[in-house]
């Protein structure tokens, strides 16, 4: 086996370095070894772990050599949260079946019917802001994103079940961003139910309460006509595979939890970065406002989502600091060759999204925020991959981008802000995502819009 050059420090040192500050870890390794390097970050007896950022190598992993990999246990940490029937837990024919059932519900055209609702949910949240107030953009975007999940994805309407599920999900989503709390998902030995006072016992009790509400909603929905409903849960319930079979209640529950856990924090974090970069680049902010104003008052959400510079801003925000630093790891199951290196079965290959997005050969001045690069050039799916790629790309990417554009445009159409930060920041870890630190706040300095009266009296 001919492996790429890589780190020679002890496996424990490499692992601790990666966990403590993965961005610094990737920057150092890339500066020394280039696009491809070998590490030992899965334990003392772990197989080699190779990170890739060259577009040709990423293309080989995603497409031409896709059948040479398996995923095995690399997704096991998500199992307690998303369940056995989740899309991300499947391989082969079962993965293909579930993806085919999910994709129509998350297709761009299907999501367009939810545009007005996303804008309205954003507006209702903004009513609580006032001129002179300093707000945490990350917290506000997290709240809006959760409301979108509950109403656009779950199809819930405000009421007792809605409020209870919102409360429970908010608690869960906040808890799993804690490194101490999330540790138990990585080590099965910690998953011991010692009663409600033990960490795992508390988690299981919390999940049981969430599941009770979700299954109750599914049962109620099955007793209703779904023909005119456009929420994702209802569309999934109507979907049929090639044999005419629909999703079971367990499958529906697990897909909903998957969309929640992979789509909530990531979208909120992407929006936070967009606000951060725009308020550090006045020229970009002014140009975006001009584009939004040219669309007139209350533009159609679909037209709004197709605005070129708005799209470029969102793409660039996800490029500079992608929410997921890596794509899903692949385990080699037969000997293969990529870029002149030979990989034996058991080797782990990981396309590194962060390094692919910071590659100077692809992106000139890659560390700088410049939306124009997406106006002037089209990048391949192996150069720009904020949602991963191949058959394992994020199934909710169309929803995430649609939501990002509508929320960002709606907020900027209503308010002017001042940033509280005088200098650039280093990303802070929040669960599996990386966001501006909590010191990033925006001060509301001007109300640009006349708030519709109906929003005060929903």
Describe the overall structure.
By secondary structure, this protein is α+β, with helices and mostly antiparallel strands. The chain has a single domain (11-455), classed as Cytochrome P450 (Cytochrome p450), CATH 1.10.630.10. Helix content is 49%, strand content 9%. The strands form 4 sheets. Strands 1-2-8-5-3 form a 5-stranded mixed beta sheet. The longest helix has 30 residues, at 249-278.
The CATH architecture can be named as Orthogonal Bundle
Strand composition percent: 5-15%
How many separate structural domains? 1
Which regions are unreliable across 5 or more consecutive residues at pLDDT < 50? 453-458
Determine the mean pLDDT. Answer: 89
Classified in CATH, the superfamily is Cytochrome P450
| Secondary-structure content class | alpha+beta
Identify the notable features of this structure and list them briefly.
Cytochrome p450, 458 residues, three-stranded antiparallel beta sheet, five-stranded mixed beta sheet, 9% strand, alpha+beta
């Amino acid at each position: 086996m001919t492996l790429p050059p890589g780190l020679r420090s002890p496996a424990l040192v490499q692992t601790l370095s990666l966990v403590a500050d993965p961005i610094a870890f990737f920057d150092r390794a890339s500066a020394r070894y280039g696009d491809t390097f070998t590490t030992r970050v899965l334990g003392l007896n772990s197989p080699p772990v190779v990170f890739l950022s060259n577009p040709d190598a990423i293309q080989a992993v995603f497409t031409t050599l896709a059948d040479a990999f398996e995923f095995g246990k690399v997704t096991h940490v998500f199992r307690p949260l998303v369940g056995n029937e989740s899309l991300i837990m499947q391989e082969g024919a079962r993965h293909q079946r579930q993806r085919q059932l999910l994709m129509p519900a998350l297709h761009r055209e299907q999501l367009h019917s939810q545009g007005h609702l996303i804008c309205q949910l954003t507006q209702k949240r903004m009513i609580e802001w006032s001129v002179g107030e300093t707000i945490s953009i990350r917290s506000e975007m997290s709240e809006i994103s959760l409301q979108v999940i509950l109403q656009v994805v779950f199809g819930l309407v405000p009421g007792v079940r809605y409020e209870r599920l919102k409360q429970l999900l908010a608690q869960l989503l906040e808890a799993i961003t804690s490194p101490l709390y999330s540790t138990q998902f990585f080590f099965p030995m910690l998953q011991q139910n010692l009663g409600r006072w033990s960490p795992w016992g508390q988690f299981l009790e919390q999940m049981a309460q969430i599941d009770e509400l979700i299954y109750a909603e599914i049962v109620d929905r099955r007793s209703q006509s779904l023909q005119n409903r456009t929420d994702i849960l209802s569309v999934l319930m109507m979907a049929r595979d090639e044999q005419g079979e629909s999703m079971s209640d367990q499958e529906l529950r697990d897909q909903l939890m998957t969309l929640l856990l992979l789509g909530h924090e990531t979208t909120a974090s992407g929006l936070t970065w967009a606000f951060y970069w725009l308020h550090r680049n006045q020229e970009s902010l002014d140009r975006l406002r001009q584009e939004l104003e040219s669309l007139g008052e209350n533009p159609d959400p679909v037209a709004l989502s197709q605005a070129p510079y708005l799209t470029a801003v969102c793409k660039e925000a996800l490029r500079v600091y992608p929410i997921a630093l890596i794509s899903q790891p692949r385990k080699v199951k037969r000997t293969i060759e990529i870029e002149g290196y030979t990989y034996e079965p058991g080797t782990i290959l990981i396309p590194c999204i962060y390094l692919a997005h910071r590659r100077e050969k692809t992106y000139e001045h890659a560390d700088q925020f410049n939306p124009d690069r997406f106006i002037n050039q089209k990048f391949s799916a192996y150069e720009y991959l904020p949602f991963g790629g191949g058959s394992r790309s994020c199934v909710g990417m169309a929803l995430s981008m649609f939501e990002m554009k509508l929320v960002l445009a709606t907020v900027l159409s209503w308010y002017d802000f001042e940033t509280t930060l005088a200098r650039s920041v280093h990303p802070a870890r929040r669960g599996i995502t990386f966001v501006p630190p909590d010191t990033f706040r925006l001060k509301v300095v001007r109300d640009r819009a006349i708030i519709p009266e109906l929003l005060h009296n929903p």
